[in-house]
Amino acid sequence: MITLSFYSAAAASLLAAVSGMLAANSGIAEQSILPIGLPDLPFHLRLDALSGFFMTVIGLLSFFVSIYSVGYVKGFIGSRPVTRLIVFYCIFIAGMFMVALADDALFFLVSWEVMAAASYFLVMFEDEKTANRRAAFLYMVVAHVGAIAILLSFGVMAGLSAGFENFSGFTFDAMRQAEFPVRWATAAFLLAFFGFAAKAGAIPLHVWLPDAHPVAPSNISALMSGVMLKTAIYGMLRVTFDLISSFPWWWGAIVLTIGLLSAVMGVLYALMQHDLKRLLAYSSVENIGIILTGIGLAMIFVSFNLPVMAALAMTAALYHTLNHAMFKGLLFMGAGAVLHATHKRDMDEMGGLIHRMPWTAALFLIGCISISALPPFNGFVSEWLTFQAFLLSPSLPNQIMKLFMPMAAALLALTAALVAVAFVKVFGVTFLGHNRSGDISHVHEVDRHMRAGMIMSAVACLALGILPSLFIGWTDILIEQMAGARLSTSASAGGWLWLTPIAPERASYSGFMVFAGILAVYGIVYAILHVNPGKIRRGAIWDCGFEKLTNRMQYNSVSFSMPIRRIFGFLFFIKEDVQITKAPHPVFPVKLHYYLRIRDRFWFWLYMPVSKAAFWVSRKVGRLQQGRIQVYLIYSFLTIIVLLLVKSL
Amino acid sequence: MNGSIVEILQIVILIGLAPAFAGWIKVVKCRMQGRTSPGLFRPYRDLAKLFSKDIVLAENASWIFRFTPYLVFGTVIIAGAVVPMLSTNLPLSLTADAIVLVGLFGIARFFTALAGMDIGTAFGGMGSSREMMVASLAEPAMLMAIFTVSLLCGSTSLSGIAGTVSGAGFIAKPSLAFAFFAFVLIALAENGRIPVDNPATHLELTMLHEAMILEYSGRHLALIEWAGMMKLFLFMAIGSALFFPFGIDAADNISGIPQAFVFLVVKLGAAGVVLVLIETGLAKMRLFRLTEFLGSAFLMATLGMLSFFILE
């Protein structure tokens, strides 16, 4: 049953991905109206290049994850019922596709809620734990605050496009054709950006994300981090570039600022984590930040009418969208494999898993290299394109922007470097060294379905890394629709092997050559050295001659990030405490207890006041409730009098 | 055709001369400090000795530990193929621009840090953690320095930059000076020289890079040491290409190559002396003072970029 349902989900996702791929490539918009929905408000569907692109992203990862799920969900058999998981899994994927296909505000919001509700139940899957219930609740609250903002934004646009008296403005077509006054367009954009940023987990609206993503089953975490966040990116692009379509430069500056803030803070928070899945969740915040940075740049370039640069920045953003889906999906699937095999999420209890799970380790490593933006894998290409877009910013006519750009580029560079630290830590602590919690001989490699899901995404990571010109050719029409210029002619001027975004003498990169070159040198050097190789003797660890080394003396995730904690500690709430038990002799301590707690400052700055205020207001309002019928009758009586007064004025 | 010959020649020079450059630094340093030097060719003999030795591998070393030396060696050679040392006319220079070069050093470091953690010793983890910390501050500074120069030249390709800077009509700007100063600081950090790291030490409290590769032996160690020498050599070549590209041949012919080679040797010799002066004049910094050192490099580079955007 499990096999059948996940195979059909995989097939459906693949179909959707293929149709999306074709739609994005041809750029033809296909519309249809479904005879369901409310009276006079039928559901409109539309498949154009933009939705085709996101259908591809969602479909591809859903396909990989569905294959993976066949093996992963079998692990729950015997411990808990899985029917709920399977049903909501399929509804969740369907909801994401519907969001990408919706062509009116009503259907969009219905799909949006279907997606949110399905993922809420998936986060609640292991609902016996308090932390999970709390995380799911927080997720629901933030998702709905965001949904209200999106609803209001659509309301503004619909009302302005066809008047507030009738409903005909609710289709995206009507909004597309309308010209919005700047003030109202800004209101609509800010509302939509707030709503979508809440869903995307951009800082400061991210607090739900590191709670909700890790507690869901890992296949769900992969989908949530990999593609659900991308529906928010889709929404932003749809509203700004398609529905509103002309905007001042400072909208882009807002997106860029939020993007950079998310990128830097996201990776620093990720570095402080020791829970594997929580770290990955924070890293999604960071990647959303990088995508927003690209979109913000593109918006700035578009508003100053610089189409080629806008095309470059937009390509970088979309490329990173697809890349992040692939490697974050891979990493969450890998984390799921580790969880499946060890039943642990805390990295500080792991270590040495590479010997027990060689496949998972190698595939997870590919994910780590890709996300750390190292050549020749895919993360590097999108990062490189973003940097190239930054380097074109001197042609901006605005002085403020010019001052801002070097800082922005510096922050992005810092982010890229810190990600590598975070993922050396993840891989090193989890898979390398000795195990920190004792015997791991029972740990075994995962089954072939789980491996297949991970292998496919790893291959996608490599392919996207070494063949970027194919991607640029594929998104050409989409980029032209959004930015007003194409890249493909200049980007593949030197042939498919070389990526030359603007001109070959300006910048060029060939992931394929780097990959082939490293392999070739490896092969040659290996061959030369193994003509007459010296013996390899296995021996005990040398460690500068120190003796009595135990596994607990290895660096763990807390000690690994200690230097970074010292440098960037002022950004967090850090409570550190060392308790030394000195009895019986004051000179020779017998026990040392180290206590460390790191908390998100945004929680105290932003959320605590809001939740306190909410409680305060409800307490005050609660006083109305007396429990006596006479009092309530007085309330109704007073209300009627007030209404009559208002009416008569 | 000529391009390919130059390309091969460059890689041969990089592989062949890097140990001599390391030896030159040792010789000058010994002179400076009033010691007798082991001679220019000491590094060659060290490498030969290491290659001929057997390997002792720790019991739980995984494939990552054994793969890393080859990968590190490979990335440095790929980097060497794109840095214009003799000529800007390199057929492979399209493969990687300056940003990719930083990425190449990044992947070598990524794997070295993993290899440090692979054995599961306290020193290895310590070295990885500290090296990654230094890198996380040095790498953005390096990128900013490169960005500043590429904004001036309108190109991130190293050959393009070298061509523009050495070309007629190029006027040195203040931003270039900022970038150069930042680059010097970063080169010290990236290559593990004093005041960031002490390449001559094996004392656990002072080592960064050495701590990660403590467990290596035999040909693995030889490859890593050799790659380290080549990296130092390359950084000098990158500095020369970005800031002092005079003498680098631009035309597509072989006849200019001997002259370019002479220039390269002279520049490297001078760079070695400067490096020794810095290393002899300074003491190694405490680890957490490094943030100030690297932070100032980052600041310099950002200032350079800022001055480009505002003044130029």
* Percent in strands of chain B: under 5%
How many individual domains of chain B? 1
**Number of helical stretches of at least 4 residues of chain A:** 25
Strand arrangement across the biggest beta sheet of chain A: 1-2
**Biggest beta-sheet profile of chain A:** 2 strands, antiparallel
Based on secondary structure, the structural category of chain B is mainly alpha
| H-E order of chain B | HHEHHHHHHHHH
How far from one another are the termini of chain B? 40 Å
- Summarize the amount of helix of chain B as a percent range: 55-70%
Structural class of chain A: mainly alpha
Question: How many helices of chain B does DSSP assign?
Answer: 11
Radius of gyration of chain A: 27 Å
Brief digest:
By secondary structure, chain A is mostly helical.
List keywords for this structure.
heterodimer, A: 649 residues, mainly alpha, two-stranded antiparallel ribbon, two-stranded antiparallel sheet, 25 helices, globular, B: 312 residues
Describe the structure.
The complex is a heterodimer of chains A (649) and B (312). Among the domains of chain A are: 248-530, no CATH class; 561-599, no CATH class; 602-648. Helices cover 68% and strands 6% of the residues of chain A. Chain A is globular, with a radius of gyration of 27 Å. In chain A, a hairpin with a 2-residue loop joins strand 1 (30-38) and strand 2 (41-47). Chain A has helices at 2-26, 49-74, 83-101, 105-123, 130-162, 172-177, 182-200, 209-215, 218-244, 249-272, 276-303, 307-342, 353-356, 358-371, 378-391, 399-431, 448-466, 468-474, 476-483, 488-491, 511-529, 557-560, 562-568, 601-622, 629-648, and strands spanning 30-38, 41-47, 536-539, 573-581, 591-599. The mean pLDDT of chain A is 90. Chain A has 649 residues and is mainly alpha-helical. In chain A, helix 2 runs parallel beside helix 12 (307-342), helix 9 packs antiparallel against helix 12 and helix 11 packs antiparallel against helix 16 (399-431). Helix content of chain B is 70%, strand content 1%. Chain B has one domain (2-311). Chain B has eleven helices and one strand. Chain B is an all-alpha fold and 312 residues long. The mean pLDDT of chain B is 89. In chain B, helix 2 runs antiparallel to helix 9, helix 3 packs parallel to helix 9 (218-243) and helix 5 packs parallel to helix 11. The chains are: A mainly alpha (649), B mainly alpha (312). Chains A and B meet through helix 14, helix 15, helix 16, helix 21 and strand 3 of A and strand 1, helix 3, helix 4, helix 5 and helix 9 of B. Strand 3 (536-539) of chain A pairs parallel with strand 1 (55-58) of chain B, so a sheet runs across the interface.
